[in-house]
Amino acid sequence: MSKPARHRHIILLSIIVMLFSGCATTPSDDTMIMESESTVARFVERDAGIQRWVDQAYGYAVFPDIGKGGLGIGGAYGRGIVFEQGRPVGRTTLTQGTLGAQIGAQTYSQIIFFRDEKALQTFQLENLEFSAQATAVAATTGAAATTSYERGVAVFIMSRGGLMAEATIGGQKFRYHPL
After folding, report:
1. Which structural domain, as residue segments, surrounds residue 97?
2. Of 23, 90, 104, 138, which is most buried by a Cβ count within 10 Å?
3. Whole-prediction pTM
4. Going by DSSP bridges, is the β-strand pair 59-84/87-114 parallel, antiparallel, or unpaired?
């Protein structure tokens, strides 16, 4: 890689880190819980079948707003709330790194459903990692009816804005902190 190209990547990566760092303040638990509940309602509005997932899952993690961007090298960051049997039990963060053909920026929401207590505990112990592009199902009418759990986990995403084209490899990593 030439020196100018390397500098462009370093500058871009610095901008992405600054964008995804967000504000210096962290939203309160109450604010995050309300945003997460509103996000679940928007998913159900988009596809009423998601309500069955909410009702039947042992737990779920809701990320109301994930920011993502990239140009060759990319990343994403989001905060959320983890629910166990319908009750908020913890905070979570998502970080994602990608490498490959990509350009743009976007925001989206994500819900990760856990079929049983074991799947939720795997997440809470920070042992859950997966390729972001390969595992998520877009929340569209009827998608919930044709989706199933894979290794105890199912992921739904809903675009909020922006435009991004990508053919990348990468993965998502999660952190969990009890309320």
Report:
1. 3-178
2. 90
3. 0.83
4. antiparallel
